[in-house]
Amino acid sequence: MRRFARHAARILIILLLGGFLGATLVRLAPGFGTDEEELDSRLNQQSIQALRQSHTNDGSLGQFYLHYLTRLLHGDLGTSKTLQQPVTRLLAERFPETLKSVGMGLALGWSLGLALAIVAVMSRSWFIDLFTSLAAGALLCVPAAVLALLFVIAQAPGRLVLGLVVFPKIFRYARNLLARSASLPHVLTARAKGLGGFRVLLWHILPVAAPQLLALAGVSVSLAFAASIPVEVLCDLPGIGQLAWKAAMGRDLQLLVSLTMVVTAVTLVANSASDLVGRSLREGAA
Amino acid sequence: MKQRLVRLALSLSVVLTISLAAAQSGSELRFCLRAEPKTLNPVLMADEPSETVRYLTGGVLMRLNRLTQQLEPELATSWKVSENGKTISFKLRQNVRFSDGTPFSAEDVAYTMQQLMDPDLHSPTGDAFRSGEGKVITQITGKNHMTVTFPAPVVGLDKLFDQVAIMSAKSPEKEMAVLGPYYVAENKAGSYLILKRNPNYWKHDSSGRQLPHIESVRLDIQQNRDMEMLRLVRGEIDFVNSLDAEYFDKLAAQAPNMATDAGVSLDSEQMWFNQVASSPLPAYKKAWFTSTNFRRAISEAINREDLARVVFRGHARPAVSWVSPANKFWFNAKLQPHPYDQKSALQALAQDGFHMQDGALHDRDGHLVEFSVITNAGNKYRERMATMIQQDLSGIGIRLNVVTLDFPSLIERITRSFDYEACLLGLVNNDLDPNSQMNVWLSSAENHQWNPSQKTPATTWEAEIDTLMRAQASTLDMKKRKHAIDRVQEIVWQQEPFIYLVNKNAMSAVSAAVHNAHPVALTPQVFWNIDQLTLGTEVARNR
To answer: Could you tell me the pLDDT band of residue B9, with boundaries at 50, 70 and 90?
Structure first.
């Protein structure tokens, strides 16, 4: 329970700091508080001044963040400047889309990565090992945006790109981990005693690698969330990745701070959950 | 047997007709907006995507026919502008209802004008009507008659109503109740908008069938032009309203029937130097940029023909001044684009003491002539133009550095910090009347970009432009106005505060499935006759 409370406190502090840093970056970014509309030749002097004034109503950075947190306590995340809609509504509309994409991507990346890692380790064939490593290495070299573009051209479902982004990392890490576990003395003894490959994997290799694989689960969530930005933008998926891009382009402070906090929260919760489960597993094994 | 066959044939034809009608009534026109509409309130709309929504949904008193460039009656069956140009009287159409069923009346026009001119709303459309201090008076003079009186004459008054979408004074749906062909049925912010056919739209075709023909319009928000093009080729969207030269040529090679070049548009691409006295530039650079000879030399050293030919693949023409040749009435036909003449450029520079030294141009005090031009990142045409200008200027020993910035940073530099030397940007112009650019040409205006918000004109020629622009805005005599605007064009051509480079052509792409589309140079190029457009049955097959 104490461990859980410690984790929750850490998440809260990082979340607040993350939000503040996000707000600082946006406020200090060149072009904050400007609007393309200012160049509209129809607008007269007063209208341009009013437009400029409307963008500087948030006060100083400290004042803005304080107001933001006060509103946050009442469940109000403000209104998006670029999309003219309440941020809570935008998040509610788009978060499920991203969750769906990330969920599918993680499922694909993990099943593909873990399955190929197991095949590479258990087959002990240099050809399979080389082939799978080359495939993972090649995908590791291709940026998520390029993959997304290829999917758009091929008219393939964009959500799968996240799977291909996650896959090489899972594969490489899992392969190394499983190979190391497979070379432990007790595993070699089990093999020497004639235990079947499947049993060796299930009883002797996976339990040893499980806590570290769980730690990787947390990292893979943040990886998938980060990749969702270019993927959603290019594949036209209406999730929070696309929203983050629009918010950044429009210097949309309210929206960007909220998105930073949401993504930070998801990443921290995923990492903490995998950390907690991993520790429990290790303690159980001990 | 024969009778049975006839009956069967008849039944089949009825079924076919019904299914065709159903396919037509269930039709959806799709195209892309390049950004999110900033607002759906017609009074506050200023950006292009919002204006697209307003064009499709808003009912106006009169509409400028984009093909003939003449005003046509819509919700006003007739109108008359008073001789002093302050008052306009309308006779309104009867038995018209908003999309939610609320009846349309003169009260709605009065309410719209009140909203439009509300000083606290800062409506860009309203600002176009503001010619003097004082209140706008609306008077309902009869059941379907009303007048609107402005405190001072408004030039081109009737044409301004093309932008005024009438709002309901009584509808509980407020600005979402519309009088145009469509209403906004769904708005997924940042993703798409669905517009449905207005069931109460007043227009009917010659056979008495209610317009518009197309059931719904889907507007996908798609910033990436490559994607937009890809989607057009795949049949996922039906047209691209404004096409870039590169895509136009590709499409023209693949499917010539789809690509249309409607000729030179009202838009221009221009470059200007920072002449702001308080800018953080060194004094010697300020002296260069405020010199007419220097600006003229730069202008003559740029090969506009090459820009049009190489960057825009021939789908542009060298620009002359701030009025495009597409604007037939207002364009000063006596003016010609500055010729590409590097010798003449060097002679002009020599008059100001510039000289060549080791292959590089130096000013009178020995400073190397080097400056940077900023433009918006991601606009490949401007980036290419800047590179070509860089090459041209190297021919007269000038080093030009090209800096691309994202739009907010660029706006900050040209409107607030003035920390830039030259800027390359374009002007999207939707209005034929040059009075709409008053806030660019008055020296006191914020959008007088080379040196904004001057307390008194910095130069005599700016003072002359101020006088001419004010004079043309205060008279309804078209001859006098034309004379003044011609003279302003001449001054701008001589002084070159903006170095006009090219006027782009208006290009668009329309799928063969869209019938009755006649793309024009004025915006909105393709869907200006939206209520007349129909979709072929091949659309249903594609989707």
So the answer is: very low
Architecture of domain A78-285: Orthogonal Bundle (1.10)
Spell out the residues 6+ positions from residue B196 whose beta carbon is closer than 8 angstroms to its own: B182, B183, B185, B215, B216
Closest CB to B36: pick one of A31, A153, A246: A246
For residue B32, give the chain A residue with the closest CA.
A236
| Pairwise CA distance, residues B290 & B292, whole Å | 6
How far apart are the CA of B173 and the nearest CA of chain A, in angstroms? 17
Q: What are phi and psi of B92, to 5 degrees?
A: -95, 150
Handedness of CA B130, B132, B134, B140 (dihedral sign): negative
pLDDT tens digits, B258-267: 999 999 999 9
Close Cβ partners of B79 (under 8 Å, ≥ 6 residues apart) = B61, B62, B73, B88, B89, B90, B91, B158, B161
Cα dist. A44→A37, B152, B412 in Å? 12, 16, 18
User: pTM for the complete prediction?
Assistant: 0.80
Question: Could you tell me if A60 lies within 8 Å of chain B, comparing CB atoms?
Answer: no
A243 touches chain B (CB under 8 A): yes
Amino acid code (one letter) for B100: D
**A80 contacts B127? CB cut-off 8 A:** no
Q: What confidence tens digit (pLDDT) does each residue in B290-309 have? A: 999 999 999 999 999 999 99
Task: Say how many CA atoms lie within 13 Å of A194 toward its Cβ.
Answer: 0
Q: Which of B122, B412, B444 sits opposite A47 (nearest CB)?
A: B122
Is A83 within 8 Å of B190 when comparing Cβ atoms? yes
Q: State the DSSP string of B142-160.
A: SSSEEEEE-SS--TTHHHH
Query: Before B524, cis peptide (omega within 30)?
Result: yes
Q: What is the DSSP string of A48-112?
A: HHHHHHHHSTT-SHHHHHHHHHHHHHTT---B-TTT-SBHHHHHHHHHHHHHHHHHHHHHHHHHH
Q: What is chain A's alpha carbon radius of gyration, rounded to the nearest angstrom?
A: 24
Tell me the pLDDT tens digit for each residue of B202-216.
999 989 999 999 999
Of the residues A38, A47, A52, A55, the best mutation for testing chain B's interface (the one with the most B CB atoms within 10 Å of its CB) is A47
B184 contacts on A by Cβ (under 8 Å): none
Chain A, nearest residue to B121 by Cα:
A47
Q: Please tell me if residue A91 touches chain B, with a CB cutoff of 8 Å.
A: no
Residue contact A243–B119, C-beta within 8 A: no
Contact A30 B130 (CB under 8 A): no
